[in-house]
Request: fold
Amino acid sequence: MKGLENCRIAQMLRKQKKHLSFHTPGHKRAGADITELSYSDNLASPRGVIAQAEREIARILGAEKSYILTDGSTCGVHAMLYALKAAGASSVAYSAASHASVKNGCRILGLRGVEIPVCERAGIPLQPTEEEIERAVNAADALLLTSPDYYGNFPPLAFARAVCDKAKKPLVVDGAHGAHLHFTEYYAGKYADMWVDGAHKSLPALTQGALVSARNAEWAEELRESVKLFRTTSPSYPVMASVEYAVKYPRNEKIERAAEETKILLGAEKNADWSKILIAFGKDTDEAEAYLHTRGVYPEFNDGNYLMFYLSPCTTTGNLKKLARLVKKLPRGNIEETAPVSGKAGKETELVLLKNAIGRTCACDCGIFPPCVPLLSAGELVTEERAERLARAKNTFGLTEGKIAVYTEE
Reply:
């Protein structure tokens, strides 16, 4: 693979000699998928090629220290939250549309979540405004933003950095969908004290390959301790090598320009992230997705209103031309949109079929997977529109065998 000559971990794996495997993994085939051996270095306490790779990655990303993760971005989010708690934080402000790992992490660690309410425009959850960010920073010990979100939109990071500096509170960023932006001013690492890169999402890394980084030595030390608690003790060497390869992969400005041209051609939703082409199909979304599937084209997600097509530096102009040719043939329906409505919580809950939950108060966060942000949050009324979107979705979270938890009616 082109570029491997610059990757320390990959070169170490390629140089290994044939040997009899009396070690894990159990497939017993000599190759890159190994365990910690005399020549392989150790992610838990790197001193060789892994340490060198992490130093070079940190230099590219503008970090004091970067830690390779083979457990996905969720591991990095939880590590950041633990580092915040270890530094004295007891509460964290975040958007209600944050990834499930943020809320779950706060719950696991006993951190009080200060949720920033989410407004929607044409069915798309919006990023917090400057006013909302300022209020949130005043109400919590730390601020966690998502940048970019799954729809390709960005929060006002420069403003958030200034507000956090003034309040002397940390800013951390879930940048799981922004690893490809480290060449640009949009990159989370230019603003955050700590941030996560989901290398496998938008760069050529294997699934679960990610990074968590720190801006200065103080936060680097906090992260060093926290990643030990959440990272697997059996990290994949191929995934580690792919993360290094991905970060060192050259920028593809040709495909970035082609992506923006394709957005205009197809009338895609406006966003600032070239890697995410979001097209509204409304009531015809399922039919559009099925049509594309029969022609071998698979979008990243269908949220019931939009199809999102996820690009990377490895996408080709030929790929985009085929996508444009097919999408132009498809009808566009109206967006199905209802604003969230607050319900009445109770003491007890029960599981009911979605069709029987309409008008009841939802008792847990649930939504479509991906984008893995709540379509219904605990305490909101289950509307007919949102119940139908959940029922149509092929993959969901928060439901139990097609049933939703609601508060019992007194």
Remarks:
- The mean pLDDT is 94.
- The longest strand covers residues 65-69.
- Residues 144 and 390 are 27 Å apart (CA to CA).
